[in-house]
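re the bet — no i am not wrong, look at it urself. input seq straight from the record:
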Amino acid sequence: MSKQFVYRVRDHSGRQIQGVVTANEEKAAAAFLCAQGYYVTYLREQRSRNGWRRIFLRGAGVNAKEQALFCRQMVIMLEAGVPLTGCLQVLSQQENPGRMNPALEQVLRQVRSGDALSQAMKALPHYFPLLMVSMVAVGENSGALQAVLQRLAIQYEKEHRFRERIKSALIYPAITALMAIFCVLFIMAVVLPAFEQIFQGTGATLPLLTRILISAGRFVQEHGAGLVTLAMAAAGTVFFFLQKPAVQERVADGLLRLPVVGPFWRKLLLARFSWSLGLLLQSGVPILAALEMVEHLIAVPAFIKALENSGKAIRRGAGLAEPLKKSGLFPGMVVKLIAVGEETGSLVKVLNQIAQYYEEEVDEFARRINSLTEPALICVLGLVVGTIVLAVMLPLLDMTTLFSM
């Protein structure tokens, strides 16, 4: 079974090069690099550490905006008649270097040495995802590289806009919640202890609510550093376990069963499935190979199992719609549309329409959550602050009554 090995090497001029090479074992990878004339300084098997990036629709090393820009610039220069090596050289020597520049320099060297563009890109999965590599390979074989890069540019631009809309819709509630937590902790740790000294000077018996909040404030004040340390340790522990592929898969499947997050998560995955499969089929990738690539892109076990069963059914001569229906993950509308697309020969068009529908659904869901979360946070914050104010005012009212008597 082939494995991927991360490497760092130096060429004859002493320049350091890094990337990923595919081989059956470490010795074979080292032998391949040495045969290329490189001096190996680091070589280790690549672990699955980018599962969350794939699961949550992120690229492994660069974002969709950078990938779209790369594809768009390549299309412009190829249409202008610039040879492939010239395109790569221009992009790798830009005045404002980006994160892709080191990768483009390596791709340029491999293309000049005789490798195909897709083969050179395949060695750098942190920069060029499987979808891009596979479609570029199809474009090279069919002589339609420009058209393939054009489709990729359009799709990555659409994905970038889609992701930014979701971020902008969800980031405000998150910031509001953090600020609310900070304000409450500040009141409990700084403001309440100051009132405690005033109340103690009167010698009056404090109401139960006041005593509870003062005790909580004193606890936060005395053990604040320990609480922060404990929170950081808990976050680090969770982060450590979330790096394990088995945990990632369980969490990804578990999200589908949550009451509010589940529908949103499912729609997000359906949009990803539809546009990626449609894009691959439109570029001429056979459906079985396309399904395998979509499995890698989605990286959610429940969906992977459904796509694997679909591939087995297609090998037996069945269609795509029926095994998707049996999985229970795909809504009836999606199954019926895919069945119609298979019967009429317009599967690509149907998949693009499904992707557009679910992208709009996710966008609307994010906007609705944003509109509901803001007043909910305000109500919760008002309730908390009101409780604190009440705890302060009750003993003051008691003191006022006592003095008036």
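see?? Confidence is low (pLDDT under 50) at residues 48-60. told u. also The first strand starts at residue 3 and ends at 10. so pay up
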